[in-house]
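Deliverable D5.2: sample structural annotation.
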Amino acid sequence: MTMILNGLHRTMLWLCAALAITIIAALSVQITSRYVFNAPVHMTDNIAEISLIWMTFLGAAVVYREGGHVGLDLMASRVSPPVQKILRIVLHAMVIAVLAYVLTQVRQLQPLMSRLEFGTIPKGPLTSKFMLVLLPFGLGAGTTILFALEAIWTELRGGKAEASA
């Protein structure tokens, strides 16, 4: 199972890197075409915006597995190692609970989504609000839940988390 999660982690990391390169390229084309050639290219801002949305949600899962989110260890550093282990398990369980709850409430977002506008992005199946917000959020949250379950399993087994890039 760890090999599958390592592969998923690596794939998401590469996808986030590709999305970052896409953002840089799209905005570079926009700046160059606008200020050098005085002929702006349409859709470059939209490509950057869509890439940023996907990179945000997928990247959050990658960073979660790597333990890179900001955290306070003030309380954990003052207790014994067995209590630290319990605190880590409880925190991972809380992440799972919150994300699972939010995923069950996604249907409640539909009325809010009707008011959401994405600039000049043309309407189509690949640019629906589902593809632009709900799907990347769902994939990021679902993957984070998988990584949190892996972290709990690793804590219970007494090993170290393996977040290989």
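Annotation notes: The longest helix spans residues 2-35. The chain has a mean pLDDT of 83.
The annotation will be released with the project's public dataset once the embargo ends.
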